[in-house]
Amino acid sequence: GEEVFPGEIDVVIVPGLAFDSSGARLGQGGGWYDRVLQMMPRATKIGVGFDCQMVENLPQEAHDIRMNLVVTEGRVVRLENL
Hints:
Strand content: 25-35%
Order of helices and strands: EEEHEEEE
Strand order of the largest sheet: 1-4-6-7
Oligomer: single chain
Number of strands: 7
Largest sheet: 4 strands, mixed
Helix content: under 10%
Shape: globular
């Protein structure tokens, strides 16, 4: 197929170990998604998981990229940064 540059991507589905209602995401700790998502400024970032992965609050660092939506089997959390 054709090469697609990260800045041209409109939507990205992002897995995680946990999410909170502010769009924060806990991953595997390597920072790979955060580095790649920085190259996709216009993309809508959709975190996907299960209700049991939603927590009250996750710690965030300056380089962490928040999700625009978090979708689980029981809810869709739409965030202000959408």
